[in-house]
């Protein structure tokens, strides 16, 4: 079991304890706790390969003992990527806040500086040898790369939220338009039924009302056809359509 002692060689810049290869541990900061229930502790494990930023390329997450006890195969409760974890959470706990789950711990695990293969299985070792300027440059490089990775995470999280918002707006507006057209058809049917009444004395206004309803239905269906363009994404249709039909600017 790896000991999470504070170490000077932390490429994440988050003061996280670096870990050696093939180490295992439980809980924070590299695995979540108290999910899905209070007292649940997830496990983690490091591999061998490193990323250019000094963090492990291979890292694994394990289910809490309570959830893995009924599994026949270890592979069924071992996750080798964030995507596999996300798929498991969404399918097994559909009401869970996935973003909050990943925000509760850090996926990146910094490696100790010496004795690890670099980005592969060869004998190359990552060391901190060299002049002070080289060390400073290396640390600055690691910091810049980590900043870029953090920005990518933020961008993708923002994109996902934006897409979820667009989907919700489109869903509400399209269903509202369908219901509106449905109501127009029902109104038209009422007028037609009234026209068939044997006691009818003045049919002119009803025929006029039928023509108006049919024209209104035609216009609303044309509007719906414009709204269907949203299937290509909000960014691919005109702002006028977004503003008029979806109240989205």
UniProtKB/TrEMBL annotation:
Matches recorded under Pfam families: DUF7081, DUF7615
MF GO annotations: kinase activity
InterPro entries reported for this sequence: DUF7081, DUF7615
Keywords, in A-Z order: Kinase, Transferase
DUF7081 domain: residues covered: 18-111
DUF7615 domain mapped to chain residues: 141-245
Domain of life according to the entry: Eukaryota
Xref: PANTHER family: ADAPTER PROTEIN, PUTATIVE-RELATED (PTHR33345), OS03G0747200 PROTEIN (PTHR33345:SF6)
Stated name of the protein: Calmodulin protein kinase
Organism this protein belongs to: Trifolium pratense (Red clover)
